Amino acid sequence: MSNIQLYNGDCLEVMKQIPDNSVDLIVTSPPYNVDLGNNKYNRNPYSLYKDNKEHKEYINWLKEIFFNLYPKLKKGGRICLNISDGKNGAVPTTSDVIQFMSEKYLNIAHIIWNKQQTSNRAAWGSYLSPSCPSYPSPLEHILIFAKEDKSLQHKGETDLTKEEFIEYAYGLWTFKPETKAKKIGHPAPFPEELPYRCIKMNTYISDVVLDPFMGSGTTGVVCKKLNRNFIGIELDKKYFEIAKERINE
User: Fold this and answer.
1) Helices assigned H by DSSP within 70-173
2) Sign of the C-alpha dihedral computed for residues 190, 195, 198 and 201 taken in this order
């Protein structure tokens, strides 16, 4: 039976309550800083969070969060960070994240998530002209880092199948994004397949998984299905209640 702990608040404040060296895996997808809500391809904004920070401010904000999460991870504990670049790849968010994370964490993997589709497919730039074309991307990134050691420091029971391991141990993951954002009630939920793969490949049964940007609670839903313990933090009260309901169901 999974132990589920849900917190409504700013992750920088809430994480102070989490004991050091207690988390086995962090699976999360922070806001992408793509001006959600004012972007013509997604008119649904976050309720509280303003998704259009100046890029350097955004990167420094992420750095502060993930450096403060470092003590919470066990030695060998890992982070699976789902991120995307802005403006069809013109804003190098992924590269900047890798650079600052490498100051403190060990790099394990850079997985390309092929979503097979993109909402802004017709953002051509200079249509039918080489003047200034744009290149909409169906790809996102899943960056995996570890604390101090790339190997888990404890033994446990795995539920990975041979077929899953062979498929997931590959730097290109192909599955579709979440298509029910409106029904779920959150502007940018990721599909269950994403945390499912990350959790199965990086934890044993009953390990502790943290999502500091819980959103609609998808990571928690998967943890409950896979018998992992889960800690979820969400700033917005509305999304927090959605997550709590989804996880309880």
Assistant:
1) 93-101, 162-168
2) negative
Dump pLDDT digits (tens) for 49-100.
Answer: 565 678 899 999 999 999 999 999 999 999 999 999 887 778 889 999 999 9
3-class SS of residue 93: helix
Exposed, middle or buried: residue 23 (CB in 10 Å: 0-12, 13-18, 19+)? buried
Domain with 42 in it:
4-248
> For residue 106, what is the domain's CATH number?
3.40.50.150
Q: What's the pTM?
A: 0.89
Count of domains in the chain? Answer: 1
The dihedral built from the CA positions of residue 65, 67, 71 and 75, taken in this order, carries a sign that is positive
User: One-letter amino acid identity for 199?
Assistant: I
Q: What is the pLDDT of residues 93-139, one digit of tens each?
A: 999 999 999 999 999 999 999 998 776 666 778 888 899 887 878 89
